[in-house]
Write a structure and sequence with these properties.
266 residues; elongated; alpha/beta; binds adenosine-5'-diphosphate; binds magnesium ion
Length: 266
């Protein structure tokens, strides 16, 4: 069936699961994000110029969202520039310097932490997030510069998997670093009611632990919890879970940390 069990204990424990936590990006979704909208904050910045600046910064990032932005800029034949002082901000985004300008690119929290207001674009951003898009915000020299909306389709079998697990009496949860509105929308589409959103990479394993101990309050024993993930970020959570399950198309680190590998990513 394309399911690789790396040890016998995982096979045995998989039969006793009370809860299963799914990472969102690349696990419940295809992990092939695509830019669907670019909105510049206006004069003198055009949408193409914004995309070009952000792509220039993102070319140094390993994040899947970064790849989507770089691909879009290349598809539009925009000239990507060299950057200096690139700094990844885990769970938030990045900082870089391009032609003397300081660029901040990332989520809402990154903007909030740097006291950057979204001016006239807050409403559009909320609409996009409510529709399940991941919105990337950017600022140039401390001033809001615009947003880039990214879509990532849910896997065709995700809904059915959630339904089957729920029918078996297994609690299904979603775990993501993405913003709450986007996460809630995708979870809603799939029938998932327990959502851990805006979780920093270093906190993913703690969320697994939280669900494990939560079981003790209802059943007197810790819950047996599985974690399904694909990213480098997910590795500690996969190790913390009673059964760690990696997506076969995911990162080597995730497959290394997991007990079970879904070879067909299904
Ligand atoms: P996840 O992959 O589960 O969404 P991450 O912790 O990698 O979680 O990222 C959390 C959020 O931080 C992303 O959804 C995105 O909004 C923002 N982010 C992280 N890295 C980048 C980046 N390179 N460019 C833009 N946004 C980023
Ligand atoms: Mg992922």
């Amino acid at each position: 069936n394309g399911i690789l069990f790396k040890n016998a204990a995982a096979l045995e424990q998989a039969a006793k699961l009370q809860a299963i936590i799914f990472d969102k990006t690349g696990t419940l979704t295809e992990g092939k994000p695509q830019v669907v909208e670019v909105m510049a904050a206006g004069n003198p910045l055009t949408p193409d110029e914004l995309l070009r600046l952000v792509a220039s910064a993102e070319q140094s990032s390993e994040h899947p969202l970064a790849q989507a932005i770089v691909d879009k800029a290349k598809a539009q034949n925009l000239k990507i520039e060299n950057t200096s002082g690139f700094e990844a901000i885990p769970g938030h985004g990045l900082k870089a310097t391009i032609a003397g300008k300081t660029l901040l690119v990332g989520n809402r929290k990154l903007m909030r932490d740097n006291n950057i207001s979204m001016e006239g674009m807050a409403e559009r951003a909320a609409t996009l997030e409510g529709a399940g898009r991941t919105v990337i915000y950017s600022a140039v020299d401390g001033k809001f510069a615009g947003l880039i909306a990214i879509a990532d389709a849910v896997r065709p079998n995700a809904k059915q998997a959630v339904e089957k697990l729920t029918a078996m009496g297994v609690q299904v949860a979603m775990l993501t670093g993405d913003n709450r509105a986007t996460a809630e929308r995708i979870a809603g589409e799939l029938g998932i009611t327990t959502v851990f959103a805006e979780v920093l990479p270093g906190q993913k394993a703690d969320k697994v632990k939280e669900l494990q101990s939560q079981g003790a309050t209802t059943t007197g024993r810790p819950y047996m919890v599985a974690m399904v993930g694909d990213g480098i970020n997910d590795a500690p959570a996969l190790a913390q879970a009673d059964v760690g399950i990696a997506i076969g198309t995911g990162t080597d680190v995730a497959m290394e940390a997991a007990d079970v590998v879904l070879m067909k990513s299904d």
